[in-house]
């Protein structure tokens, strides 16, 4: 029944529905403009009233009525500034004739979508995107069988299926009955589901948006063949895999194909050239391989082509030059070779071109200089050569120019960059260039740079033009020939914007009269490594997170001001002459540490608890100082700690058994301190669950061997012991993941160590994750080696030398089949050397010298490579390589005799040392990899010990 406002005006809206709309309005608060995230939003329901001439709800803003029946069939309150919960008894669900409902871009206060939405059984279009809904999507939505469009995108706390049970059927249960569906938009909704096969049969689908949905498993290849599909966007689902269809046809209407950041693999099929309507192809960061098909050149409607960060090989097809509508072309981070095709000069609509991080060669082709619409040109990290053409200054719209890490040569007059007035990013680092800055010194018209990389550019002083730069975010002047003192004006350069400053690997001697702390209010990264800096340690501002000051000549104490650095994550002060005690900072200091390296200074006193308390701390390296007292017990809170190195100090403590529950601890190095006492086996069984390397050598431990304390190290499959697939113990300490960072800040902190290997103290510049080593030599451990030593199956290096061990060498050592170095020298072992040890096929070093061993030396296999030094000091041993023959007729036959020259060489302790290092490079698969240089030989220590006896 129709209502009338006056004899002259017919009211179409029904009373019950206008009442329902008004009741709906009253259930919400209207946000003011300042609280709305959408600047175009306005309160649509403000026009809803029964007063005056506005009583017909069919005339209200956002309301659509059926002209014949007067029923409300459409409600569009998108960006309407609504705030509040959508209640299950909301009057909205009385509007049962609704066909279109759009509540997008409001704030429903993290309420759930009510199951009563199923009352709106005639809905064809439901849009609840970006409206702050949360909780589980009601299964009743699947009952809306008329739906042709479903958009729940950008509700980040919304999920499908019973989340706690991690069901894989979320998408199946949601859309399984929606056979009329054309548009399925669920970006950022937690589906955590496989893509159901029936989706490939929903022929009415025109667009699928499923970004960031937690999709898993294989996507049905039939989806690519849907006859009406224009948009397929499943980006940012890392668990989603599949292959591109090799049967794309010319009839396909596909316009957008976005598979970025998924696990798709295989090659791009040649048939992709049939997708004549395709305007966007985004395959970033997948696992694609093979060559780029030349058929891509058929896609003349393409505007956006992004296939970066894959494993594409071969040359860039010249046919890409046919894509004259391209605005974005990104082929970066692949393995492309050859020259840059001249045909790319045809792409005059390009605004973004990135060929970054490939293997491209040759010169920059001159047709690229015709691309005057370019705002970004990235050619860095290739093998390009030749001179940088002056015509590059014709690209007057450039904002970002990256030519770093190539083989460009010649000189560049920096003053010419005045022509590129929009330029904010310039990277010329790591070429063979000489950047001439004299012509730019007084030029105030240069662009205002934000990112400026001039590493390895033959600079011999700080460029004067930097005085006028007040917007720098990153400045990299590392690897140059800049000598002397830092100019005073540097402290006023970009004080309010600078975040990263890289001055490492120069010849700087002084920072002059610098402020304390340094004046940059936003600085997060400061790199002054490898200079000649003297004086006291400068203190960066409180914003700092990464501070590198190693390999300088700094002296004196650390200022108490360092305690303001409450956000610092990496502190590297190694290899200086700093001294005194560490400041006693409050609890909020050190909580953010990831890496702290104070190696090779002269610090003394006890280690403050606050320096070793970080719950994110992964590597702590305090070796080669003069620290005293106990290990700080706060280390027990460092649950992600991987490396604890306190070697070569004066610490006086018992063994830190309180570290045994740290789940990630890989390296424990307490070498050369004053640790003492016995190490008892844990009553609860094996502890130190992830320990790989332990060095307790040169202390004063006693009692029985503590081998059982260090766990049951399982054998690593030999096929994994390959240097191509092994990783190192390191921390990626890049400051922020930003594309235009100074290259110096893409920096991995590698843990280094010194350990006795094959009789020599060897410096490891990198430590493989698979290395498993125990060195408990030069203590006072006694008793016998227990048979349980066979549990250490994955061990590569075992050093029990220079203790007071007794008994026989157990045959069970033969079960340590990964063993590459075994040192049992300078003990009181007796009996024979077990013949079973010849089964150790990877043993490259063996030393049992200066014991009480008797009988024949085992023969054959690796034992044919060990020389006299391995056995000297055992007067009752016999057999090769010793000159003493065994009287026993059952002794093993001797191998071929060794020449006089070889014997003489083996008797030189220094020559022996160098030979072992050569073996380290060539022999061991794990122990011998990435050995640095010799630090010292053990021969001298042994000789001095003999004199003292």
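^ structure tokens above, recovered residues below v
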């Amino acid at each position: 029944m129709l209502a009338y406002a006056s004899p002259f005006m017919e009211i179409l809206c029904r009373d019950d529905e206008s009442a329902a709309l008004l009741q709906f309005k009253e259930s919400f608060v209207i946000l003011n403009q300042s609280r709305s995230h959408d600047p175009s939003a306005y309160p649509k329901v403000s026009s809803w009233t029964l007063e005056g001439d506005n009583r017909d709800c069919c005339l209200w803003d956002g309301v659509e009525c059926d002209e014949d029946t007067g029923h409300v069939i459409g409600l569009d309150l998108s960006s309407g500034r609504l705030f509040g919960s959508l209640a299950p008894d909301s009057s909205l669900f009385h509007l049962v004739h609704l066909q279109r409902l759009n509540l997008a871009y409001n704030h429903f206060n993290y309420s759930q979508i009510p199951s009563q939405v199923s009352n709106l059984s005639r809905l064809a279009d439901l849009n609840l995107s970006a409206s702050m809904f949360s909780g589980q999507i009601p299964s009743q939505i699947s009952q809306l069988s008329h739906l042709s469009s479903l958009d729940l995108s950008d509700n980040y706390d919304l999920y499908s299926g019973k989340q706690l049970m991690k069901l894989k059927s979320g998408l199946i249960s949601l859309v399984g009955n929606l056979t009329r569906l054309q548009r399925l938009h669920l970006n950022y909704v937690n589906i955590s589901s496989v893509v159901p096969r029936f989706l490939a049969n929903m022929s009415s689908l025109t667009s699928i948006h499923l970004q960031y949905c937690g999709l898993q498993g294989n996507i049905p290849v039939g989806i690519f063949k849907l006859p009406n599909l224009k948009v397929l966007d499943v980006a940012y689902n890392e668990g989603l895999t599949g292959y591109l269809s090799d049967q794309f046809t010319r009839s396909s209407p596909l316009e957008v194909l976005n598979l970025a950041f998924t696990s798709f693999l295989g090659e791009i099929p040649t048939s992709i050239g049939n997708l004549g309507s395709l305007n966007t192809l985004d395959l970033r960061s997948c696992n694609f391989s093979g060559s780029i098909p030349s058929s891509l050149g058929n896609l003349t409607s393409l505007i956006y082509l992004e296939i970066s960060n894959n494993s594409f090989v071969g040359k860039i097809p010249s046919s890409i030059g046919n894509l004259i509508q391209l605005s974005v072309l990104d082929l970066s981070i692949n393995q492309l070779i050859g020259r840059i095709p001249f045909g790319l000069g045809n792409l005059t609509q390009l605004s973004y071109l990135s060929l970054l991080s490939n293997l491209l060669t040759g010169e920059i082709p001159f047709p690229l200089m015709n691309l005057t619409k370019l705002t970004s040109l990235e050619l860095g990290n290739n093998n390009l050569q030749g001179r940088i053409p002056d015509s590059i200054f014709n690209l007057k719209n450039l904002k970002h120019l990256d030519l770093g890490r190539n083989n460009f040569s010649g000189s560049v007059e920096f003053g010419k960059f005045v022509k590129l007035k929009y330029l904010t990013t310039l990277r010329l680092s790591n070429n063979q260039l000489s950047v001439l800055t004299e012509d730019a010194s007084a030029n105030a018209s240069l662009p205002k740079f934000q990112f400026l990389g001039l590493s390895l550019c033959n600079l011999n002083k700080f460029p004067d033009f930097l005085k006028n730069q007040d917007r720098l975010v990153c400045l990299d002047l590392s690897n140059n020939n800049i000598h002397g003192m830092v100019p005073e004006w540097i402290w006023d350069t970009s004080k309010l914007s600078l975040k990263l400053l890289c001055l490492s690997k120069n010849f700087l001697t002084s920072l002059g009269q610098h402020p304390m702390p340094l004046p940059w209010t936003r600085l997060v990264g400061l790199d002054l490594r490898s200079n000649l800096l003297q004086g006291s340690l400068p203190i960066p501002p409180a914003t700092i997170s990464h501070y590198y000051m190693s390999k300088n000549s700094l002296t004196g104490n650390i200022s108490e001001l360092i305690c303001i650095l409450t956000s610092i994550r990496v502190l590297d002060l190694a290899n200086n002459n700093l001294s005194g005690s560490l400041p006693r900072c409050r609890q909020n200091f050190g909580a953010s540490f990831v890496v702290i390296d104070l190696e090779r200074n002269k610090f003394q006193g006890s280690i403050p608890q606050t320096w070793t308390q970080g719950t994110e701390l992964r590597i702590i390296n305090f070796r080669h100082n003069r620290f005293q007292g106990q290990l700080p017990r706060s280390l027990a809170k460092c649950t992600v700690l991987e490396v604890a190195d306190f070697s070569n100090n004066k610490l006086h403590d018992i063994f830190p058994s309180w570290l045994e529950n740290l789940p990630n601890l890989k390296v424990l190095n307490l070498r050369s301190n004053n640790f003492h006492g016995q190490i008892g086996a844990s009553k609860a069984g094996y502890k130190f669950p992830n320990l790989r390397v332990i060095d307790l050598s040169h202390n004063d431990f006693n009692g029985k061997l503590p081998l059982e304390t260090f766990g049951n190290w399982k054998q690593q499959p030999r096929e994994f012991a390959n240097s191509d697939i092994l990783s190192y113990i390191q921390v990626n300490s890049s400051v922020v993941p930003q594309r235009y960072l100074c290259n110096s800040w893409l920096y991995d902190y590698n843990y280094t160590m010194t350990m006795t290997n094959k009789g020599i103290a060897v410096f490891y510049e990198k430590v493989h994750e698979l290395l498993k080593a125990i060195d408990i030599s030069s203590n006072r451990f006694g008793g016998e080696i227990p048979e349980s030593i066979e549990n250490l199956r994955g061990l590569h290096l075992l050093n029990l030398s220079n203790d007071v061990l007794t008994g026989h060498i157990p045959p069970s050592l033969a079960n340590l089949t990964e063993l590459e170095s075994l040192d049992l020298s300078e003990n009181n072992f007796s009996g024979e050397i077990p013949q079973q040890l010849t089964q150790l096929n990877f043993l490259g070093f063996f030393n049992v010298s200066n014991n009480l061993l008797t009988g024949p030396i085992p023969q054959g296999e690796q034992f044919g490579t060990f020389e006299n030094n391995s056995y000297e000091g055992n007067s009752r041993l016999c057999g090769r390589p010793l000159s003493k023959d065994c009287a026993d007729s059952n002794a093993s036959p001797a191998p071929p005799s060794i020449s006089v020259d070889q014997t003489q060489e083996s008797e030189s302790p220094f020559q022996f040392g160098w030979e072992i290092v050569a073996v380290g490079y060539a022999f061991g698969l794990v122990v011998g990899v990435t050995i640095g240089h010799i630090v010292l030989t053990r021969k001298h220590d042994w000789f001095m010990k003999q004199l003292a006896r």
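The longest helix spans residues 909-922.
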